[in-house]
Every structure is written in C-alpha cells, then in structure tokens.
Amino acid sequence: MQILDRRLNPTGKSLENRQRFLRRAKALVQRAVREASQDRDISDILDGGEISIPTGGLNEPQFRRGPGGIHDNVLPGNKTFSEGDFIPRPEGGGRGRPGAGQGGGDAEDAFRFMLTREEFLDLFLDDLELPDLAKRRLTEVEHEGVRRAGYSVSGSPVNLAVTRTMRLAMARRMALRRPSPRAVELLEEELAACEDETRRAAIRAEIAALTAKMRRIPFIDPIDIRYRRFENVPKPVAQAVMFCLMDVSGSMSEHMKDLAKRFYMLLYIFLTRRYRRVEIVFIRHTDRAEEVDEETFFRSPATGGTVVSSALEAMRHIVQDRYRPQDWNIYAAQASDGDNSYSDGELTAQLIQNAILPVTQYFAYLEVGEAGAHDNPVMPNSALWGIYDRLRSEGAPLAMRKVSTRSEIYPVFRELFQRREGKPAA
C-alpha cells in the first residue's frame, strides 16, 4: 500500500515539490532564516513567516552543447558585416543579468516565499546540538521503532513473505509427491498419439489419478503462508538535563533581564524542539536561589542582593537528589551581569570548580550588559567573568560570551550551541 500526500501549500504547489525545493536551496534558505531571526522577537520565531532569497540561487543544472564544431550562421538583413569580419565584443561584459538597472550598479530580484512554523524551526535549529551528549541509559520502555522478528502464520497482507511462502509450499509439494503439470501434459500428448485402446484406457486412468492428486495437494496451502513479523523494540534514550541559572538581583536592569530572558527563550525552544528526553530546571537567584517553574522564571519580578554561589549550591543539591551524573548528561546555562558579592567570590570559585564543572558536560555563561557597555576597551572584566575565564584557560568545559543588544542574542546563541566536530568549547 502506498500513500501519496497531495496536500497543497499556500502557494498552490504540491507539498512534495515544496520540500524538494527546500532541500535544493537549503543553504540559501538557512542564511535567510538566520538573518530574519535577528530582527524578530522570540515569540515571532514560532510563527514562521516570509523570507527572501536571491533568484541566482534557484538555477537548476541542465545539459548544454559544449564548444567546438563548425557553425554557419545566416543573419538576414545585415548591412554592416561581410563574411570573415570579426564582430567586436560589446562593452560591459556581454549579456546583462535580469534586473540590472540602467543607472549603474547591478541589481537582482529576490524570490520571496512563506515558510510554515515547522519549516522555519527546522531550518532555525538545523545545525545546533547539545555538546558531548554521550551517556545513555534505558530508563523507560519507549517503543521508538520496530525490527524484524521472524515470521508468523497470520498478519497483514502487506507483510506477506512471498519468498518464504513459496519455499514452504515447494517443500510440502515435494514431500507429498504432488504431480507436476508437465507430467500430465506428457500423458495427454501420449494419449493423442496412441492408437491402442487398451493403452489409451490406461493412460486416461493415470491422467485422472494424477489430476485428482493435484487437486488434493494444492499448489499453495494456507499452512504455507507466512507473514513478516515485526516487534517494537526499546532503544536507548540519551538523557539530559539543562539547568538555567538566571541572575534577577537588583544590579540587573530591565534591559539586562530582557536579554537574559531572550537567551533562555531561545534555549527553551531549541531543547523542546530538538530533544525528546531533555529536562529543564529553572533556577533564579538574588542573594538566595530558588527552583521555579517556567512561568515564574520568565515573568515573575524579583529583586535583591547578589550571591552567585546560592544558584550553584542549589544546582549541586538538585543534581545529588535527582540526576546521577553516571546516568545523566548535565548541562548548565547561566546569565548574569557578572556582579557578585565580594565575600562570595571564593565560594563561587570553589563550587564551580569542584562541584559543578566535574559533573557537567558543558557550561555556558552569558554576561549581559547595558547597550554599548562591552564595546568599551577600558571597561574592566566583571568578578564572575574573571573566575570563569581562569577556569576556561585551564581546560574546563566552559564557554563564555558577552551581549549588550538584542541583535547579538541569536548569533551568540548559535556560537554556544553550534554543532561541533571534536572541538573543545571556546
């Protein structure tokens, strides 16, 4: 049985043609999606929308005649050139491209089309991944797929095992000595050529016996029929947990909190879209830390002093209680302005170095600042940045970035979670 999907997309082309086009122009479409994402709110990313790519990227390969050979061209109405004259090359390089303007400078029309929500997100997250997703353990029976499990005597007609059925039927016919049609045909030919009535009667009796035996022993019997059998099999599932640590203290301005929340919204979309078995733990902190739900994390206001070690301590306790490092891939993403209580610096360094980084696969730190703050070369690094930078230089699985404007969030997010091939985090 074959199922053909002939649903139409909004432009009237078949879904199969649309998907074929997206595969062919994938690089151009991906670049357009990334550029479009930088100017959108995070919530707008979920809605798909219109993008444009240059028409030059839509050319399809085609066969042409190669150079060579002798050609005679007849140009009727020619009053300028005679046979053997050379035609000068036109200035400007010959043929112009469609859309080139007359006033100087080239232009190229853009091909605009709509992407659905699913298509936009697939392209948006295509080359992102959680680094070093290595530890695997089968914790729950999940029927991820099917595998061949021999044959059965009952099943769906689409799973009929023709080869196995014919093999069993042949073995049964041979065991029961079922006459072949060819033997009957030979007897009928002999009957037609024989003139001896006694012999003809014997031949007729033999033909009748063989025919009766053939009817008793069918060519294919129901006991011969076999069906391919499949069974659901549990597959190991990569378990991962992401800890989202966000500073919501008084030193974080509304602009900084907005940048941090946008980063975490991107992270949330990425994790829930790409991975089935990833748990997300939200921790926010001032001078004390608390585990909160998604709604509180993104929307509930808070203020107070700054003690970064409280968030790291909360993460350490949660890991000990719920996520054994031997079984779970543990990740953490922290967003802060880098400010911390002076007396808390040593404890923060000890926790991150001795308790957090040894059990995490990857730790991403995003330092947010006011617009233009990170462009000042004389601006000293924050206390938290100094601690993390020292650990990173010692080879810890820690990545660090700074952002001060909304347009920097998406590029930085891609840098932190872009697919790596054997490269350490930077």
UniProtKB/TrEMBL annotation:
InterPro entries: UPF0229, vWFA_dom_sf. It comes from the Bacteria. Residues 80-107 are annotated as: Disordered. Pfam families: DUF444. Residues 95-105 have a biased composition (Gly residues). Belongs to the UPF0229 family. NCBIfam families: PRK05325.1-2, PRK05325.1-3. This is UPF0229 protein FHP25_08275. It comes from Vineibacter terrae.
